[in-house]
Amino acid sequence: MGSATFFEIVLDHHKILKQLSGAAPEVWAGFFAGLKKIHRLNAMADLVADKGLNWEPIEGRRFPGTNEQLYCFRITRGWRAVCRMQTGPVIVIDFVVHHDGAY
Questions:
Q1: Cα 42 from Cα 95, distance rounded (Å)
Q2: Neighbours of 83 (CB within 10 A)
């Protein structure tokens, strides 16, 4: 039997596909590699410590209507996924953006 997944990832695939349309192949590959890596992690401490994902809170930014803290993780050198944490633990990926637009 395989190991249990610690994190559940929720995203609107139509919205993410639209945001990634026109992105270079390495951006797509980086996004899917990041999702796979998150699924392999066993604890929140692993997520925070992973140097490749560079998981970090976006200081001073909250999700509208819920006031949940926004976080981001690295897709490629120039792209980030912006998300929030919910009980579960569940990572809700709200959008992907070129790095300059993430902040």
A1: 24
A2: 25
Query: Phi first, then psi: what are they for 78, rounded to 5°?
Result: -105, -5
Which of 87, 69, 98 shows the shortest CA–CA distance to 10?
Answer: 87
pLDDT along the chain (103 residues), means of 10: 73 94 94 94 92 93 91 93 91 88 48
* Multiple choice CATH, 8-102, 3.40.640.10, 3.30.70.1170, 3.40.50.2000, 3.30.2310.20: 3.30.2310.20
Sequence ranges of the domains in the chain: 8-102
Cα separation, 78 vs 90, in Å, equals 25
Q: Look at strands 69-74 and 79-86 and give their pairing.
A: antiparallel
User: H or E segment at 79?
Assistant: strand 79-86
* The model's pTM: 0.84
